[in-house]
Prior knowledge:
Elements: H1 2-10, H2 20-27, E1 31-35, E2 40-42, E3 51-56, E4 59-64, E5 70-76, E6 81-82, H3 84-89, E7 96-99, E8 103-108, H4 110-119, H5 121-147, H6 150-162, E9 172-174, H7 180-187, H8 191-203, E10 207-209, E11 214-216, H9 219-230
Antiparallel strand pairs: 1-8, 2-7, 3-6, 3-8, 4-5, 4-7, 9-11, 10-11
Amino acid sequence: MYDRxxxxxxxxxxxxxxxxxxxxxxAGACRFERYEAKRQxxxxxxxxxxxxxxxxxxxxxxxxxRSGKEISYRDLEDGEMFGELAAIDGEQRSASVVAVAxxxxxxxxxxxxxxxxxxxxxxxxxxxxxLARLVRLYSQRLYEMRTLDVQSRIRAELxxxxxxxxxxxxxxxxxxxxxxxxxxxxxxxxxxxxSRELASLTRRGLIKRQQKSLLxxxxxxxxxxxxSMLGE
Length: 232
């Protein structure tokens, strides 16, 4: 089990630069946790402060409104981390995290996480870079919420989901494709609005539905539609 923890941490961004001795010291405070799909990992405003690292599977960061409506922030997959904010500032959890599929996590106590940051500049740098990326991401999404109509917010979310797979031929693939309800939760709209917009983009030749994925046939064209609305 201990060797598995060391191997798992060695593949996760904050710890990839550590030598074997340092990795073993960090792993000594950690444990594996396995979650079935739909099981909650952490709860909104909970007082816990462990930091988690995704070894395999997928988790979703969400907040539920008082009426029960789910607002989804993002999905986290292999190699990603979550829960670090509470470990850093000592405040309650800022969101809930739920397993989307069967997921294996490495859990690290708050004290061990803070010690790793203090003792290893490369870990601290990786955590800072991640926090900076999150601030930029959420700032962009807030700007889109305030600026764009529903159709454009859906298009912007498709671009975000596909941009890592963009090829030289101006196509990109979203795989697996989230459900219309999942996309709706990310852009604060209804499932029906997402279905209508996907159908519209398909008719325009910008996207093509495949079995469990979505092909963006003209990434630049789709991006231009969003940029034109942001520029207004």
